[in-house]
């Protein structure tokens, strides 16, 4: 069951990414190019739509004692508010995102479509993740609720 | 009369992002409601490298398979969703990928995990992360353009 739930989630997610235009690095860079003179606000609408829907849904979901087919909710640890890892990781992610115009989701979807840039990005992204694992920093834990 | 035309073009430009965003939000909410898990792509992929249990591997692979099937479907139904050329040279794309791979694991999230799911549940940590990576992205694009233009 869980596998099917996840499969459907991934498929709809991919369609959402494609429809939103976020699989086009030019659109992502166009959004981040705040000072370029041809600012593309599309990403703001993507985020706005996604966050609004999720926010409303989450308020309903969190009233449940447990998810529908799993035994507990798995949410990240919320404390502390800020730490060096979070900032450093976010800075690195933002830099890479701005350099390539890809983030993980669109890179994977475009890789399935055999996009050359996406395949290069995905391969190197996986390498970067392996490097993180090799460095030995433990993955941040989830808090089971 | 130019105005109706201009309005239509603008609507189309907003509709795609908005509808796409709604689909992203819905699929993420679906995953949370049904399985209690965060639809954070960097985590779904990244934690595979930390030797997870078999159940964990299975749902992650299933999700990624869904992403792939969705991607292939888009090729036929919405091919314009994909770029025709490269926006950046290959070597820069490769560097970008490594940095994103490492950074998303260090920061424990990306646009989906922190952006959609984190901000969606009003997480302070995720909001900090989003502001930070947005700022970093903006500065990076600015500097990249300045460097490319000076060449």
Compact overview of the structure:
The complex is a heterodimer of chains A (145) and B (151). With 145 residues, chain A is mostly helical. Chain A is built from six helices and two strands.
Q: Structural class of chain A, please? A: mainly alpha
Oligomeric grouping of the chains: heterodimer
- The averaged pLDDT of chain B comes out at 92
Tell me the number of helical segments of chain A per DSSP (H or I, 4 or more residues long). Answer: 6
Helix content of chain B: over 70%
Q: Give the overall silhouette of chain B.
A: globular
Greatest interface and its residue counts?
A-B, 112 and 109 residues
Low-confidence spans of chain B: 1-9
Low-confidence stretches of chain A: none
| Count of beta strands of chain B | 0
* Biggest sheet statistics of chain B: none
Say how many strands of chain A there are.
2
Cα radius of gyration of chain B in angstroms:
18 Å
Largest sheet of chain A: 2 strands, antiparallel
Envelope shape of chain A: globular
- Radius of gyration of chain A, in angstroms, nearest whole number: 17 Å
Q: Approximately how much beta-strand content do the residues of chain B carry?
A: under 5%
**What is the H/E order of chain A?**
HHHEHHHE
Keywords:
heterodimer; A: 145 residues; mainly alpha; two-stranded antiparallel ribbon; 4% strand; globular; B: 151 residues; 6 helices; disordered N terminus
Structural notes for this entry:
- The complex is a heterodimer of chains A (145) and B (151).
- With 145 residues, chain A is mostly helical.
- Chain A has 6 helices and 2 strands.
- Chain A has helices at residues 2-20, 25-32, 42-61, 84-100, 104-112, 116-135; strands spanning 74-76, 142-144.
- In chain A, helix 2 crosses helix 4 (84-100) and helix 5 (104-112) crosses helix 6.
- Chain A is globular and about 50 Å long.
- The two termini of chain A are 21 Å apart.
- The model of chain A has no long low-confidence stretch (mean pLDDT 94).
- Chain B contains 6 helices and no strands.
- The N and C termini of chain B lie far apart (43 Å).
- Chain B is an all-alpha fold.
- The longest helix of chain B is centred in the N-terminal third of the chain and has 33 residues, at 3-35.
- Helices cover 77% and strands 0% of the residues of chain B.
- Chain B is globular, with a radius of gyration of 18 Å.
- The chains are: A mainly alpha (145), B mainly alpha (151).
- At the A-B interface, helix 1, helix 2, helix 3, strand 1 and helix 4 of A face helix 1, helix 2, helix 3, helix 4 and helix 5 of B.
């Amino acid at each position: 069951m869980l596998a099917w739930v996840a499969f459907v989630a991934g498929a709809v997610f991919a369609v959402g990414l494609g429809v939103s235009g976020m699989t086009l690095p030019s659109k992502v860079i166009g959004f981040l190019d705040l000072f370029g003179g041809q600012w593309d606000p599309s990403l703001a609408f993507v985020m706005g739509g996604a966050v609004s829907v999720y926010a409303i849904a989450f308020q309903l979901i969190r009233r449940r004692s447990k998810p529908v087919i799993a035994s507990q909710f798995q949410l990240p640890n919320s404390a502390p508010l800020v730490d060096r890892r979070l900032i450093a990781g976010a800075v690195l992610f933002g830099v890479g995102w701005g350099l390539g115009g890809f983030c993980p989701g669109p890179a994977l979807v475009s890789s399935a479509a055999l996009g050359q840039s996406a395949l290069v990005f995905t391969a190197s992204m996986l390498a970067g993740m392996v490097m993180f694992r090799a460095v030995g920093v433990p993955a941040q834990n989830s808090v089971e609720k | 009369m130019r105005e109706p035309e201009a309005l239509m073009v603008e609507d189309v430009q907003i509709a795609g992002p908005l509808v796409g965003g709604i689909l992203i939000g819905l699929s993420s909410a679906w995953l949370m409601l049904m399985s209690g898990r965060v639809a954070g792509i960097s985590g779904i992929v990244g934690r595979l490298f930390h030797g997870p249990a078999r159940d964990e591997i299975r749902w992650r692979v299933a999700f990624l398979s869904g992403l792939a099937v969705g991607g292939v479907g888009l090729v036929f139904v919405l091919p314009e969703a994909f770029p025709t050329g490269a926006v950046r040279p290959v070597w820069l794309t490769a560097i970008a990928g490594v940095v994103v791979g490492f950074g998303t694991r260090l920061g424990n999230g990306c646009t989906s995990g922190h952006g959609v799911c984190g901000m969606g549940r009003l997480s302070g940590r995720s909001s900090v992360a989003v502001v930070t990576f947005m700022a970093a992205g903006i500065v990076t694009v600015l500097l990249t353009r300045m460097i490319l233009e000076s060449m």
